[in-house]
Each structure stands twice: as structure tokens, then as C-alpha cells.
Write a structure and sequence with these properties.
The chain is mostly beta strands. The protein has helices at about 75-85, 95, and strands at about 5-10, 15-20, 25-40, 40-50, 60, 65-70. It contains two helices and six strands; from the N terminus they run E-E-E-E-E-E-H-H. Strands 1, 2, 3, 4, 5 and 6 form a six-stranded antiparallel beta sheet that branches.
């Protein structure tokens, strides 16, 4: 079952991102979106909603505590949330442009054209 990732503002004023489950009326696995002032403007950090007492992104928030739903969620923020909540790294198209060079220089071309080349010592 796929869940939509939503960014909301809750009654406490916190910005929260999580997996919206329509059938239950809950935002599951919530993370707080924290803004941090820097010399160049602001940065954002995702932390577990229960931080500092809980270090994993778990739990749920009822729709009764949500006061505002953001219509759009930046793709980069959604990717960072999915990485933080699943411990997986999500690659972007720019990450995939250099796939040919990942295996180093094979036969002087930098590319592997034969799978058996991977098995050679």
C-alpha cells in the first residue's frame, strides 16, 4: 500500500512531514521540519517527532491535530524524508549520469560491455 507524503502544520505550530493514511485519518511516521538560521539564509533539518527521547521516525498524528495542509511538497524534501524514514538513499537523475564511470577503467574505455569482465581478477 503506497502512502502519500504530506507536509502539514499542526496545532502546536510545528511543520510535520509524514505518510498520510486516508482510511485511518492519520499521519504516520511523522518527522518535524526544523528551520535553522544560517549566515546564508536558512537551512532545514528533519528530526523524529519524538526527538530527543525517540531517535527513529515512528508514531502517528490524528487529523484532528492538523490545522494546515500544504498543497505541494518539494521533491527534494520528500526524498530526504523517505531516506530518513527508511534508511535508504534515493538517487536523482544527476547521480545516474556517471554510471559508466563507477566501475573505473576497464580495458581503457571506462565502460563494461561484458558481464564476464566483472568476474575477472
Amino acid at each position: 500500500m503506497a502512502h502519500m507524503i504530506k507536509l502539514v502544520k499542526i496545532v502546536t505550530g510545528d511543520f510535520v512531514i509524514g505518510k498520510w493514511v486516508e482510511e485511518e485519518g492519520k499521519l504516520k511516521d511523522p518527522a518535524i521540519l526544523q528551520t535553522i538560521p544560517t549566515q546564508n539564509g536558512i537551512s532545514m533539518a528533519l528530526m523524529p517527532f519524538g526527538y530527543p527521547f525517540e531517535t527513529s521516525i515512528e508514531g502517528e498524528i490524528s487529523k484532528d491535530h492538523i490545522v494546515y495542509w500544504y498543497k505541494e511538497l518539494p521533491q527534494e524534501l520528500e526524498n530526504k524524508y523517505l531516506e530518513a524514514s527508511s534508511n535508504l538513499t534515493i538517487s536523482s537523475t544527476s547521480d545516474l549520469r556517471n554510471l559508466d564511470n563507477l566501475m573505473g577503467n576497464q580495458s581503457g574505455t571506462g565502460k563494461i560491455t561484458n558481464i564476464s569482465d566483472l568476474l575477472k581478477p
